[in-house]
Design a protein that fits this description.
Elements lengths: L10 E3 L11 E5 L3 E4 L3 H11 L7 E2 L2 E2 L2 H13 L4 E7 L2 H14 L2 E4 L2 H14 L6 H7 L2 E5 L10 H6 L12 E5 L18 E3 L6 H12 L13 E2 L2 E2 H13 L3 E6 L8 H15 L5 E6 L5 H12 L5 E4 L2 E4 L6 H4 L5 E6 L13 E5 L11 E4 L9 E4 L6 E4 L10 H12 L1
Parallel strand pairs: 6-7, 6-17, 8-9, 8-13, 9-10, 13-14, 17-18, 18-19
Antiparallel strand pairs: 1-2, 2-3, 4-5, 4-19, 7-15, 11-12, 15-16, 20-21
Helix pairs in contact: 2-12, 3-10, 3-12, 4-9, 7-9
Length: 426
């Protein structure tokens, strides 16, 4: 419970705290701030948003007015030949504005969570994939197979709203949940309302590539134990357990395989994702199985969709002479930070600090943002879905959800700030 001001009473809204974009959130203000249909993640988001202290733009750490900060930001970009636009924590309208400015300034664009996103992108670009939507999961899925993720940590209401929701079109049975590579203590969300326990198969994350490859081998009636020692274990998992997984997937009416690229933090994880999608494809030769990749947050799905329809490429793209180029390796922030001559960091949903950079920096973001190193320019922006309206894509990219303005705020939106910077460069 938190006391706030300037909120709208009993207003249902969409929550941008995760990729589910739950649109049944209700915020009400009487003597205290109360919520309905929220999770711990959404409560944290709204509490931090409504408690954000009013702050002024800064140039070299000193408060100033917006016009001076806009001119200082424009001057940095005007002098730059190779700027990096990173962070990109925004929604559709903000990203559209950033794309226009990037084309004008020949900037490279990279989202703060692209290390995870690019693992999915590389797998999809290489061999394609068969994925589903949240609505299809709610209406049809009778088996949920979660690989390396408990799902609920990143998307807290997934089971409540999607898996256990009995308001489905086809009267599906209570889904069975299978966890692979998830600690037992993190699987409570997979317990069905009638008390049915999930099937939990522990495994080390680093062993998942070997285990998924073994599942593919078993699907092809091959023995994954050939030339291996250690009994009947693959990556610490018994062959009998892997066969049990396949049996449950094959007997399902509509199985959904879920993974989180952000949890697969090992070398060449895109190959493991490709192995997951190959398993799905093989199962679909005789069954009905679909994939569901989880997003990482901070608007990554919205940013990459917007970038793709405007330039033909997801982020890790660059504009050169008005034309977009794409390089999933060289255009990463990790490589560009040592080469760029200006950094524009954007983080409007959360107060994520920018990376260390020796180039002049312009930071546009959450008013609660704190800095280890004082930026050249800081412009506090309105928080999407709180201070201004906007649009976001749900994690399955099939639905665009509206964000509502919930309070009056003097803070401009990111698209307004970027538009003013762009006007200075005309």
């Amino acid at each position: 419970m938190k006391t706030i001001s300037n909120t709208t009473v009993d207003k249902a809204c969409s929550c941008p705290a995760c990729g589910l974009l739950c649109d049944d959130i209700v915020l009400a203000e009487t003597s205290t701030f109360t919520t309905k249909n929220t999770c711990l993640k959404s409560i944290s988001f709204f509490e931090k948003s409504f408690s954000a202290h009013s702050t002024s733009p800064q140039v070299a750490g000193k408060p100033t007015d917006l016009n001076v900060a806009i001119e200082a930001a424009a001057d940095i970009l005007r002098k730059s030949n190779q700027p990096l636009f990173a962070g990109l924590g925004t929604e559709v309208q903000g990203m559209r504005a950033l794309m226009r400015l990037a084309e004008k300034t020949r900037a490279t664009l990279d989202h703060m969570h692209s290390e995870a996103t690019v693992r999915n992108t590389l797998a999809m670009q290489n061999s394609g994939w068969q994925t589903t939507t949240l609505t299809e999961v709610k209406n049809r899925a009778d088996v949920i197979f979660a690989i390396g993720t408990d799902i609920a940590s990143s998307h807290p209401r997934f089971f409540e709203k999607i898996v256990w929701n009995t308001d489905s079109l086809f009267n599906k049975p209570t889904p069975e949940v299978i966890y692979l590579g998830v600690a037992t203590e993190n699987t409570k969300a997979g317990i069905s309302p009638d008390g049915k326990l999930p099937l939990v198969i522990p495994a080390e994350t680093a062993k998942l590539p070997e285990i998924i490859n073994a599942l593919n081998a078993l699907m092809s009636n091959k023995n994954p134990l050939v030339k291996k020692s250690g009994g009947d274990l693959i990556g610490g998992v018994a062959i009998s357990s892997l066969n049990l997984i396949l049996e449950k997937l094959k007997s399902a009416q509509y199985a959904v395989v879920v993974w989180s690229a952000s949890n697969l933090k090992f070398a060449h994880a895109e190959l493991t994702i490709q192995s997951i999608t190959q398993l799905i494809a093989r199962l679909n030769e005789s069954n009905r199985v679909a994939g569901l990749p989880l997003n990482s947050g901070d608007g990554d799905s919205s940013v990459n969709n917007t970038s793709t329809w405007l330039s033909g490429y997801p982020t890790r793209n660059r504009f050169v002479n008005g034309h977009a180029e794409y390089d999933a390796y060289h255009f990463s922030s990790k490589h560009q930070l040592s080469n760029c001559d200006a950094l524009l960091w954007v983080s409007t949903f959360n107060a994520h600090q920018p990376p260390d950079c020796n180039a002049p920096s312009v930071i546009i973001g959450h008013p609660n943002m704190q800095f280890d190193k004082v930026p050249d320019v800081f412009i506090p922006a309105g928080i999407p879905g709180v201070d201004h309206a906007g649009t976001m894509f749900r994690m399955d990219s099939s639905v665009a959800m509206p964000l509502k303005k919930l309070r009056e705020s003097h803070l401009p939106s990111l698209s307004e700030i970027i538009g003013q910077i762009e006007a200075k460069l005309s």
